[in-house]
Amino acid sequence: MSEPLLPPIGMLAELTHRCPLQCPYCSNPTELLKANRELDTQSWLDLFDQAADLGVLQVHLSGGEPTLRRDLEQMVAGLSARGVYTNLITAGVGIAEGRIRALAEAGLDHVQLSIQGARAATTERIGHYRGGHEKKLETARRVRVAGLPLTINAPIHRHNIEEVPEFIELALSLGAERLEIANVQYSGWALVNRDALMPDRASVERQIEVVAQAQERLRGIMNIDFVTPDYFATYPKPCMGGWARDAFMVAPDGTVLPCHAAHTIRTLTFERFGERSLADIWTNSPAFNAFRGTDWMQEPCRSCERREIDWGGCRCQAMAIAGDPAATDPACIKSPIHARMGMLVADAMAAAKAETAGNATAEPFVYRRITTVSEPAS
Ligand code: SF4
Ligand code: FES
User: Fold this and answer.
1) Whose CA is nearest to atom 2 of ligand 1?
2) Model pTM?
3) pLDDT per residue over 104-115, tens digit each?
4) Which Gene Ontology BP terms does the record give (predicted)?
5) Domain at 10-232, CATH homologous superfamily
6) Is the dihedral of CA 263, 268, 269, 272 positive or negative?
């Protein structure tokens, strides 16, 4: 039975794909858009107005690196004037002195800062940016001086999973209210780099224990959110809270998508803001309606008691691994191809072993860059 269509609550605005960092775990598409494809200031302001009219309460300003948009203060001010909560998702390098304060004055509500390693060498290696760690710490301090709440986002994979205890101490020392220990989701560049990024099971289990203990110890001091690693899970996550259920995203060129990897589902067509209104896209777009609710589900999801808990998991992961966006997310133990997740982990471990045995000196990653790289077939 379909539930009535409600207005969206959240919107992720990818203002640009440009970024000074080149993280191999980036969830941006492998075909990154250049600056000349980005919406102009007025189009973003119109889009934000329509989002507020539609009922959106929170906008996450992301990228790429959103502070590369010189009109960011204008966007924050526009959203703030409409009473929309704004969260800046930044890599925290190359931000000019005074910019964080200016954004706070424009009405910014919150900053989420990503840090690639608890150690400087890890941050620099993963982000492929010398001196990046110090710059990030300085950005964190400026956020706190500006009186803004701070979340530290730590994307976790094989090359930093042992640093989780240090991430916790680092976030505390920076005065963060929240730390996200976010195991990498394998889409976009992360899917290209899956073998190089996949952790082993023992490290994942140690990490789960460390996080659980810290959550207990730091209750009331700092919240720790844990984004579980799908490839080691029993049940999938409710990706995006369910397809086109209460949130959506907009790409730098104004393409409106139910999630950041939806473009990998080639059978769907996504509309651009300007050609149609946001309300029309949210309500009537065939792509948004394709996996809404539960009517589209096949077995085992169709008759599963969890179907309105996880909404069948992630459509893009089903596409990437099962080759069918309407399949049960293979992260689910009930999926007929759940064992494939374990096999992909085993493949990644074999690749890691071969790399160590060969004493590889070159980085195992394909660093994110603005060019075309094809995503691997699973
Ligand atoms: Fe979720 Fe489908 Fe698995 Fe049930 S079968 S737990 S609805 S993914
Ligand atoms: Fe698209 Fe999960 S990333 S539904």
Assistant:
1) 301
2) 0.94
3) 999 999 999 999
4) molybdopterin cofactor biosynthetic process; pyrroloquinoline quinone biosynthetic process
5) Aldolase class I (3.20.20.70)
6) negative
